[in-house]
Amino acid sequence: MTDPVCPPGTAFAYVVDAVRVGGDIATAVARLVNRLTDDELLWLLDGDRTVLAGLRGITSGYNMVAVEAGRVDRLGIPGIRFTDGPRGVVMGSSTSFPASIARAAAWDTGLERAIGDAIGTEARALGANLFAGICVNLAYAPGWGRSQESYGEDPVLIGAMGAAMTEGVNPWVMSCVKHFALNSMEEARFSVDVQVADDVLHEVYLPHFRTVVAAGADCVMSAYNSVNGVWAGENRHLLTEVLRDDWGFGGFVMSDFLFGLRSPIESVAAGQDLEMPLRQQRARVLPAALADGRLARADVRTAATRILTAQVRLALRARPTPAADVVASAAHRELARDAARRGVVLLRNEQADGAAVLPFSVETLGRLAVVGRLAEQPNLGDAGSSKVRPPSTSSVLAGLRERLGNRVVHGRDLAAATAAARTADAAVVVVGLSSVDEGEAMAEVDPQVLRRLGGITRVPGVAWLLSKVVAAGDRSKKTGGDRRDLRLHADDVALVQAVAAVNPRTVVVVIAGGAVVLDPWEDEVAGILLAWYPGMEGGRAIADLLLGEAEPGGRLPVAIPRRREDLPVVDWSARTVAYGRWWGQRKLDRDGTTAAYPFGFGLGYTTFTLADLRVGPVEGERFTATVSVTNTGPRTGRHVVQIYAHLPEQERIVRALIGFQAVPDVASDESRTVTVDCTTRPLQRWAHDGFTIDHLTTVPVEAASWSGDPSAAAGVFRTGP
Prior knowledge:
This protein is α/β, with parallel strands linked by helices. It has four domains: 316 residues, Glycoside hydrolase, family 3, N-terminal domain (TIM Barrel, Alpha-Beta Barrel), CATH 3.20.20; 186 residues, 3-Layer(aba) Sandwich (Rossmann fold); 31 residues, no CATH class; 113 residues, Sandwich (Immunoglobulin-like). It is built from 21 helices and 29 strands.
């Protein structure tokens, strides 16, 4: 294998060296492009493997090795060496971090940057040069199967976390943000057309992509779905007019895998640079199209230039390749454990026997019943393209047994679990979801889509037959897809209620990749921890939290409704769907509907107050908010300061997050002054010539512990003098 960043002694290395000593990168790359033959130019625009070889590789183990595209050994061009994500590096056996939704719950960009750095080093050590695990799609309707791969419902939080991941990854490999755009329906992703008004598109569904692009993303992956009637993979408005012309993106665009293109010739002119992961549609039609003029040579050179420029930029900034033992190293495992601890959200912590049920005391705790169908499972999340294969995992049961030994008793079925709980000092019930319930799905691959694989699938009848085989296989495995019910399984509910009936010190640990409605059992238990998919060290992390070795530091990155119908409900198999302006906590605010647990909510083992909010002047799109944070509880703890602005011209108060800051290790009775960087973007309006904030003068703001916090510190900011 050639060096994945800069093979020494090659024409590519010469270009890199020329730029490093002061040469112009555009001129140097243009010289390299001039040396490419027509076959080599077109070779850059799709994956390197044939369809047959590629499908064999995918079925034997998706992305076990880097997916290559555009490698040209004659000139030393390394090409793209792709690894998927976002829980870690999909290649090989690597660290499985908590799912992105869990990391979003930490509200900690510094932590996410550190995780990005760890992922980048592992990707590089395993031979990749591009990490495509920065998913920033907004979950419009709760229940989206891949919500676990993104960072929740809010554009500011999603954008900040995606930017931090990008900054962490970039010193090691190229960064790719996905799926551009409006990709938040799993089962219909290959066929659905998402209809959205232009102002809503720019104000709600694109700002987080813009933030990640500004942070230095090298690549944007387009989505499968169409947007306003045009497939995203060849949507000139998105890929050229918005991404390049409006935002100034200088990187390259790649298609989502296998089915990301519909028109291979037109897609090049639209701004789609790279068809991934195989030699499919473009390999079949582009050579003839270039020869007869249907494909403009200038468009081919432009795409090739973007792809090569990104590779040169990586070579200029890349740190030396780390040793192989960095992969799943002790330091990275500890980082995964810390991330899980910071992302777990404590939703309920009621008194039992005169004190809050959590944390348990290791010294005084006798027998602890640990029950539930998920207690023994590591439960890392989706088993699709984001699947990471760690060398080891820790379940909740194993994590607690490591700490408490034979004080832990376990019952597998309802009768045994109830018996164990009845005689225990406390009970932990582990329930929730797995890859069987939510995640990536192939159920809606229709024959027309499958024909785009090329080869034998273009023979009449073959694609139809293959579509039936794929759908049957997906159903038989019962994996992935979107959720139509936000509640727990009936057997989980029965278990929780049975255990709670015999043990007043019952704590429920919920495993999930998004919002879970906790009705009808939540008031029957003393404690609830929402643990998401907590990664390879998740069991140990949850044990740390239950036993008070660490504090659950998470805050909700999504609002949890009382009923599914309180938030947008979509037909997950629809061919057309409309995305509106109101979703998540903003929809609840506008409708005057109370959340079961509001956006930003989370308890801890101590308490905090916020006071003395001071707002600085607006400079461009930014301003600062300074607030005093005081730990009023009994132990050192972590807090997240959240700054909200009131949206104008609404009948009820509707809040928009405009800034946040994690505040670690605040001692009991300590006060700390915290300055939060804030943005006016959520208040800006889109017109055809860009954003404006001219409709505002004075805006109420709050420094809060969650959206709608009644104890929030109030202030205002002014958009003008």
